[in-house]
Write a structure and sequence with these properties.
The structure holds 2 protein chains of 2 kinds. Chain A has 2 helices and 11 strands. Chain A is mainly beta. Chain B is of the alpha/beta class. Classes of the chains: A mainly beta, B alpha/beta.
C-alpha cells in the first residue's frame, strides 16, 4: 500500500493525533484554536487502523501546557499528544483527567444556576462503581463522563 | 468568600452535626437571649416560603438580631435583571449574614463563593435544604434519645423529595437501617442506593404502604405531588394507597414517631394527629431552635 504523509511534517510545536473524527472540532473548540494566531493544520476523516477514522491537529511553534492538553482527556481520552522540537518528538504527553473541570462542560440540569447566570461551570471528577462521573459543584447533579455536554 | 457558610448538609462533619444538635437543645431550654444584639441578618427569598422564612426570622429576633430582606423576587431588584452576584454583593454591604431561598439549584453554592459574609441555604430548588435536615435529626434525637442504630422508614415521594435524600446522607454516620416505601414512579434513585451500599447501610424497598413498618423507630412521611405523575389515574390510585391511617399504627413500636416536613395534604389522615406518635407539629417547632443554632454558628456567636 502506498504510504504517504498527507500532512506536512512539523518543525516545532504540538501534534494531537488519534482524535475520533467526530471529536476533532470539539478539541479545536476547547483549546480555543479559533483565536490562536499560530500556524495550524487540521486534518479529519483520515484512515486509522486503531479507530477507523481519525482527526489530527498540528500547532506550529507552540507547546501546549499540561492543563490545556488535560482538557482533551475529557472528550478524547485515547488521543496521542506529541511535543515536537526540530522535527523530533521530545515529549509524549500522557492525558490525565484533572480533578476539577472548569468552563468547558455545560451542566445538563436546566434548573442549575450555571445555565441562568454568568457563572463559570465547575465539575468534580468522581469514580462511581468503576465509572467516571462529573459532579456539578453547584447543583450537585452527576453525569457520566461520556454524556457530559461540551460547551 | 466566607468559610462559615452552610450550603449543603455534606459541608458538616459528624462532629459539627452533633454540636449543632447540642446547641439547639441549649436554645430550646433558653430561646430568648441577646447574643445577636447589633447584628443584621438578611433573608433573601427569591421564591416564597413562608414557613422557613418565619422560622429563620423568629430565630434571629429571639436572639436580639435584626432582619432585612424580601419575601418574593417580584419585589426585589432581580426582577429588574440584576445578577445574583450583584444582589449578594449589595446585600453583604448591609448584613452580617444572608439566609437565602432560591428557585435555581446551585444558587446557594454560587452565592457562598462570591459573598464576603456567610450564606445560609434555606433551599435551592430541588437540591439542598440543610436546616430542614438538621431539624429532622434533632427531632429524631429528641424522640429516640439517640441517633445510633435506628430503623427509619421513608415513605412517599422518594424520587424528588430532597429532604429524604439529605436525611440519608446525614444519618449515614449513625448506622441506620432504612426501609424505602414508594410507588414505582417515585422510587429512590439509584445514586442514593449506591451511596448506601458504599457506606454499608442496610435498606429494603417496598411499593405499598400498609402496616409494614412495625419494626420502625421513625416513620418519615413525604407529600406525593400530583405534578410528578404523567398518568393522573395513577396519581389518584397512589394518593389513596399512600395515606397513613390511625389503625395502621396498632402494632407499631411504642417509641415510633411520625415525622413530616410539612405541608401535608392527604398522606396523613387528620385522625392520626391525636396519636401520641404524631410528631410533625413539634418537629416544625424544633426548626426554630435548630435555626438559632445555625445562625449562631455561622456568626461565631454560640
Amino acid at each position: 500500500m502506498e504510504k504517504k504523509l498527507k500532512v506536512a511534517a512539523l518543525r516545532d510545536g504540538t501534534v494531537i493525533d488519534h482524535i475520533p473524527s467526530d471529536k476533532l472540532f470539539k478539541v479545536v473548540q476547547i483549546l480555543h484554536l479559533d483565536t490562536c494566531d499560530n500556524q495550524i493544520t487540521l486534518a479529519n476523516n483520515l484512515e486509522s487502523k486503531k479507530i477507523g477514522s481519525k482527526g489530527l491537529v498540528k500547532i506550529a511553534d507552540r507547546a501546549l501546557e499540561e492543563d490545556e492538553t488535560n482538557k482533551i482527556a475529557l472528550i478524547a481520552p485515547n488521543a496521542k499528544i506529541n511535543i515536537i522540537k526540530d522535527f523530533e518528538v521530545v515529549e509524549k504527553r500522557p492525558l490525565i483527567l484533572p480533578e476539577e473541570i472548569r468552563e468547558i462542560v455545560q451542566c445538563g440540569n436546566p434548573n442549575c444556576i450555571t445555565n441562568h447566570q454568568p457563572v463559570t461551570t465547575r465539575f468534580k471528577v468522581m469514580k462511581n462503581e468503576e465509572e467516571l462521573m462529573l459532579k456539578c459543584i453547584y447543583c450537585e447533579r452527576e453525569v457520566k463522563r461520556d454524556q457530559a455536554k461540551i460547551r | 468568600m466566607s468559610k462559615n457558610s452552610l450550603v449543603s448538609i455534606s459541608d458538616y462533619s459528624k462532629e459539627e452535626i452533633l454540636s449543632i444538635l447540642d446547641s439547639a437543645a441549649n436554645f430550646e431550654a433558653n430561646p430568648n437571649r441577646k447574643t445577636l444584639d447589633g447584628k443584621v441578618i438578611a433573608t433573601l427569598f427569591f421564591e416564597p416560603s413562608t414557613r422557613t422564612r418565619l422560622s429563620f426570622e423568629t430565630a434571629v429576633i429571639r436572639l436580639g438580631g435584626s432582619i432585612i430582606g424580601f419575601s418574593d423576587a417580584a419585589t426585589s431588584s432581580s426582577s429588574k435583571g440584576e445578577t445574583l452576584n450583584d444582589t449578594i454583593h449589595m446585600v453583604s454591604c448591609y448584613a452580617d449574614a444572608i439566609v437565602m431561598r432560591h428557585p435555581l439549584e446551585g444558587a446557594a453554592r454560587y452565592a457562598s463563593e462570591v459573598s464576603p459574609v456567610p450564606i445560609i441555604n434555606a433551599g435551592d430548588g430541588a437540591n439542598q435544604h440543610p436546616s430542614q435536615t438538621l431539624l429532622d435529626m434533632y427531632s429524631i434525637l429528641k424522640t429516640q434519645g439517640t441517633l445510633e442504630n435506628l430503623n427509619i422508614c421513608l415513605v412517599g415521594d422518594l424520587k424528588y423529595g430532597r429532604t429524604v435524600h439529605s436525611l440519608i446522607m446525614a444519618m449515614s454516620y449513625f448506622n441506620p437501617t432504612f426501609k424505602f416505601i414508594a410507588p414505582e414512579e417515585l422510587k429512590m434513585p439509584d445514586e442514593y442506593k449506591i451511596f448506601c451500599k458504599k457506606n454499608g447501610i442496610k435498606y429494603t424497598e417496598e411499593t405499598e404502604l400498609t402496616g409494614n413498618f412495625n419494626d420502625a423507630d421513625i416513620l418519615y412521611m413525604t407529600r406525593v405531588q400530583r405534578e410528578r405523575f404523567q398518568d393522573l389515574m395513577e396519581y389518584e390510585r397512589v394518593k389513596n394507597v399512600y395515606t397513613l391511617k390511625k389503625e395502621m399504627l396498632e402494632n407499631s413500636k411504642p417509641n415510633l414517631r411520625i415525622l413530616h416536613p410539612l405541608p401535608r395534604v392527604t398522606e396523613i389522615d387528620p385522625n392520626v394527629d391525636t396519636s401520641e406518635k404524631a410528631y410533625y407539629f413539634q418537629q416544625a417547632q424544633n426548626g426554630l431552635y435548630i435555626r438559632q443554632a445555625i445562625v449562631s454558628k455561622v456568626l461565631n456567636q454560640q
